[in-house]
Design brief:
Transcription Regulator spoIIAA, 5-stranded mixed sheet, 3 helices, globular, 103 residues
């Protein structure tokens, strides 16, 4: 898994390439949380190249969202692939997370 971070003023764009599985989920979440300084109030995670997410990956998404809410910030997922969207729908995460898809 590869994570790219791009900060623009108060926004942080995170682009993920690869699977977010049991072996990579903690690094995924910790990398994001470590980069949420006081200036970041908008977090966008691009899932365009993510084909799989495990339950640990879902937990890390909740941790990121919890961190953003504590800062009165906002978190969105974008470009979520079909297989990952199915997992988010089955687990009810579509009701918890903000998801914006671009076709």
């Amino acid at each position: 898994m590869e994570i790219k971070l791009q900060k623009n003023n108060s926004s942080l764009l995170v682009t993920v390439d690869g699977k977010i599985d049991t072996n990579t989920a903690v690094d995924f979440g910790q990398t994001i949380i470590d980069n949420l300084d006081d200036t970041v109030d908008n977090l966008v995670i691009d899932f365009a190249i993510v084909a799989y997410i495990s339950s640990m990956g879902l937990r890390m998404l909740l941790e990121c969202q919890k961190t953003m809410k504590a800062k009165n910030g906002d978190m969105k997922l974008m470009n979520v692939q079909y297989a990952v969207m199915e997992v988010l729908e089955m687990t009810g995460f579509v009701k918890i997370l903000k998801i914006i898809n671009y076709d």
